[in-house]
Design goal:
It holds the Pfam family ATPase. The protein is of the alpha/beta class. A hairpin with a 2-residue loop joins β21 and β22. α7 packs across α8.
């Protein structure tokens, strides 16, 4: 068979877009690669996608299995809706009948040398017959057990590598890391090493991640990358690196539609900037972010809401009661709302969702409500800060205005946020409860704005069926942020109670 020059590309695609991105295009043709990971991490699924991608390109592929039967492999493929066609040969390597004979098992002639030799012979014979350009060998644990020593195992791996190089085949060796004799033999022999890992949090679904440990002569995307296994195969979400993305956009001010809010913000929020809305539960953090999103839709722009903490039906009803009809905005096609389950979603997949919305949906306003829910998807706080740094920088470079909410612990006085990302945000809106004239009231102030000037005043606001009403600056009160202010003036600037 002439592999002619049907395969002009230097790389063999894995059939997984995200994994190809990490590998800078795929696997270098004519080399041996190692895919390792404990059972259940997705090695077989990735291997099948690799062969299916080859079959789709007209390449001949071979799956040599020492651990699973052909029937099991085909059933696994069928569960993803795949049919292994004529371009994919499955070879189930079984011991010769003579080795299964009871008499031979008691004979001095029966030895691991004979088993290993027979296994290798069968592998080479099927390769000679089928002449594949893509090969899967599943798994090395069986060969390691047959070899019984590191020296013989290394010699066998080298023999397999040199043999396949004669056919310019791209080989993927699978290793399930289950034998006691674990060494780095194949790491040194293989052209590249990919490791799959599975983490089980205290609550929620398992988390899977992939890392390229080695790739000779190739710059790859290092570090850990999240991936999931769904019906239809493996999806890999490459770690977001904001520095790789640039966008051209005109920086303009976005109005909220509330004159007092815009006055506090020095005219509005700039595109390509991030805003953090900080305050205790019930102060209206979600409402403020929705006000900016609905204002964007009213201007004919597109907005996306990623909701972690609230059930969508309740959110729709609550917003409708204060004059925001999210259902009607959804029907316009300019508003995207996604419910995010932090217990089921990895940080990498969330970043991928946001990226896809901005890139494909041309979203100009992004709302993340809230970072408390996003933090639940993180293994530790430092990871949240790093993820948010890259995500916010990416969104800024795309010209999107991003709004994030964080619920603080406590209701009045000194409060703590579960995570401090105030230094990442371009604008920080602070909401507070305070007591005055025998009532619990709400106050809003702008703590920081990198992109321009803003009011340094504190204003009272009220949430009612008419939406949000913001009053005049509380210039005659002192100590509002502490929760129990002192009144210093002659006339009160507080909002009048409704109906009075």
């Amino acid at each position: 068979m002439t592999t002619s020059n049907v395969f002009n590309s230097v790389k063999a695609s894995t059939g997984i877009e995200g994994l190809d991105d990490i590998l800078a295009g795929g696997l270098s043709r004519g080399h041996v690669f190692l895919l390792e990971g404990e059972p259940g991490t997705g090695k077989t699924t990735i291997a099948l996608q690799f062969l299916l991608a080859g079959a789709l390109a007209g390449e001949r592929s071979l799956y040599i299995t020492l651990s699973e039967t052909e029937r099991e492999l085909r059933q696994g493929a069928a569960s993803h809706g795949w049919e292994l066609d004529n371009n994919i040969e499955i070879f189930e390597l079984t011991p010769p009948e003579s080795l299964l004979d009871a008499e031979h098992q008691q004979s001095l002639l029966y030895s691991s040398d004979l088993e290993l030799g027979e296994a290798t012979k069968q592998i080479f014979e099927v390769v000679e017959r089928f002449k594949p350009t893509r090969v899967i060998l599943d798994s090395l644990s069986e060969i390691r057990l047959l070899a019984q020593s590191s020296l013989r195992y290394r010699r066998q791996i080298l023999a397999i590598k040199h043999y396949f190089s004669r056919y310019e085949a791209t080989v993927l060796l699978l290793d399930d890391l289950t034998t006691e004799l674990l060494d780095k033999t194949v790491h040194s022999v293989a052209h590249g090493v990919i490791r799959l890992e599975e983490l089980t949090p205290n609550y929620g679904a398992e988390r899977r991640r992939v890392r390229v440990i080695k790739y000779r002569g190739q710059k790859y995307r290092g570090g850990y990358h999240d991936f999931t296994i769904l019906a239809g195969g493996v999806q890999v979400f490459p770690r977001l690196i904001a520095a790789e993305h640039r966008g051209e956009y005109a920086r303009v001010q976005m109005k909220s539609g509330i004159a007092e809010m815009d006055a506090l913000l020095g005219g509005g929020i700039e595109t390509g900037s991030s805003t953090l809305i900080l305050g205790p539960a019930g102060t209206g953090k979600s409402l403020i972010s929705m006000i900016f999103a609905t204002a964007a839709v009213a201007r004919g722009e597109k907005a996306a809401l990623f909701v972690f903490d609230e059930e969508l039906g309740l959110l729709f009803e609550r917003m409708k009661n204060i004059g925001i009809d999210l259902k009607a905005l959804l029907d316009t096609g300019n508003l995207l709302i996604e419910q995010v389950d932090a217990a089921e979603l990895t940080p990498g997949e969330f970043s991928h969702r946001v990226r896809r919305a901005v890139d494909e949906g041309q979203i100009s306003t992004v709302v993340i409500d809230s970072l408390n829910g996003y933090q639940a998807a993180m293994p530790e706080e430092n990871a949240l800060v790093l993820h948010m740094h890259e995500l916010l920088l990416y969104l800024n470079r795309k010209g999107a205005a991003t709004f994030m909410t964080v619920a603080q612990h406590g209701l009045v006085g000194d409060m703590m946020a579960p995570v401090d990302i105030t230094y990442l945000a371009d604008t920080v809106i602070l909401l507070r409860y305070f007591e005055a004239l025998g009532k619990v009231r709400r106050a809003i102030s702008i703590i920081k704005k990198r992109t321009g000037s803003h009011e340094s005043t504190i204003r009272e606001y009220r949430i009612s069926a008419q939406g949000m009403t913001i009053g005049e600056p509380l210039e005659t009160f002192q100590g509002v942020l502490r929760g129990v202010p002192t009144y210093l003036g002659a006339s009160s600037p507080l909002l009048k109670d409704e109906g009075l």
